[in-house]
Amino acid sequence: MRVEIWSDIACPWCYVGKARFEKALEAFPHRDGVEVVHRSFELDPGRAKGDVQPVLAMLSKKYGMSQAQAQAGEENLGAQAAAEGLDYRTRDRDHGNTFDLHRLLHLAKERGRQDELIQIFYRANFAEERSLFSEGDERLVELAVEAGLDADEVRKVLADPTAYADEVRADEREAAELGANGVPFFVLDRKYGVSGAQPAEVFTQALTQAWGNRSPLQLIDQGAADAEACGPDGCAVPQQH
Amino acid sequence: MRVEIWSDIACPWCYVGKARFEKALEAFPHRDGVEVVHRSFELDPGRAKGDVQPVLAMLSKKYGMSQAQAQAGEENLGAQAAAEGLDYRTRDRDHGNTFDLHRLLHLAKERGRQDELIQIFYRANFAEERSLFSEGDERLVELAVEAGLDADEVRKVLADPTAYADEVRADEREAAELGANGVPFFVLDRKYGVSGAQPAEVFTQALTQAWGNRSPLQLIDQGAADAEACGPDGCAVPQQH
């Protein structure tokens, strides 16, 4: 069974929702049969690279709320994160474009390091004093190396804005096709969806339901033709074609 | 859409079937939306590592056929392969246990080199004078390096028989659960199956049918609760829990 998670590194509910999903997955009896894949979704794709803003200023400008109201929202998120055992800085985070982060997550996927890198990005963004947006590309190189990637390869990808760009766009197109308007968005075997950072119980229900409804395959063949296949008893050699 | 292909490197119909599938995929209009994953299947799991036999001797002993009959079967396979533009040695190949090959293919998957390695293994086994079974581990290292893997990492995996063993067994368990008794076995979105090296037209039909029947997601949630999610318009902050 496969679970795809659309998310953005700049999305606090994605950070919290991933922990809730993982709590459900850890307790799921068939967890060894579940493969998790991360998919790209940008919350703020129109923002230029290098256009960085403090999170509170961004929130209060975007919603016309006071700094205090924005801060209260962050405190709520901090409490939700803490309830999942996650550190969350409710002050002095900043916000920016995440396209390069997603490109690096696709490189990491190819190198078998995607889960490591997404966790390191989340932690740097939400829990640590290590901005993903204000410190230039070398901060991303530093984090990617912690995830087990090769520094030179990471620099090469960052220097070429077309590298893995198609992969990011393809994920975003698929999100739209699947009806995801926001993230986190969880898709189980392309059959069941969970939208948002739902409680772990909802993920347990989704995993259980998707596992129980793994459907038998519908075989497609050419009717009467012999199957040209090999099995434990040898390879079939059809007599004619 | 995802296509999983269960196969064994020692399986000639897998070699031919992969080429037929790829012909269909190349012509498929939505090919950029198709992800291909290779899964492990051993035709001869009971054979000990190092127990190597010429293919013709193995065939004639296993089926009680004459050397000439076994040779005729190989000639037929060679003709089928040639029709797909593949080289095929109809003489002097050998046969052995493929567990280590599958373990390396799982390493390659993690490093983003699986498709390269499976192609190199097939070519070495069926087309070239480079035995996968008679030359010891260094032959496998040589081929894995050609696929872009790191020699030391490959040697480490070969030296540790538990490395990626669970992944191989999990693939084989899934094949059994899906009803695959032989390979190649193609599974599209866990919904449609194609058994055997069917003609490219059958794969075209399967791809078309699976693409057209990508089903809308069934959303699982907790009913009335607000979704804790972030979208282009910001992050929802539910008022109560």
Automatic annotation (TrEMBL), chains A, B:
<dbReference type="Pfam" id="PF01323">
    <property type="entry name" value="DSBA"/>
</dbReference>
<feature type="domain" description="DSBA-like thioredoxin">
    <location>
        <begin position="3"/>
        <end position="207"/>
    </location>
</feature>
<dbReference type="GO" id="GO:0016491">
    <property type="term" value="F:oxidoreductase activity"/>
</dbReference>
<dbReference type="InterPro" id="IPR036249">
    <property type="entry name" value="Thioredoxin-like_sf"/>
</dbReference>
<dbReference type="InterPro" id="IPR001853">
    <property type="entry name" value="DSBA-like_thioredoxin_dom"/>
</dbReference>
<dbReference type="GO" id="GO:0016853">
    <property type="term" value="F:isomerase activity"/>
</dbReference>
<protein>
    <submittedName>
        <fullName>Protein-disulfide isomerase</fullName>
    </submittedName>
</protein>
<keyword id="KW-0413">Isomerase</keyword>
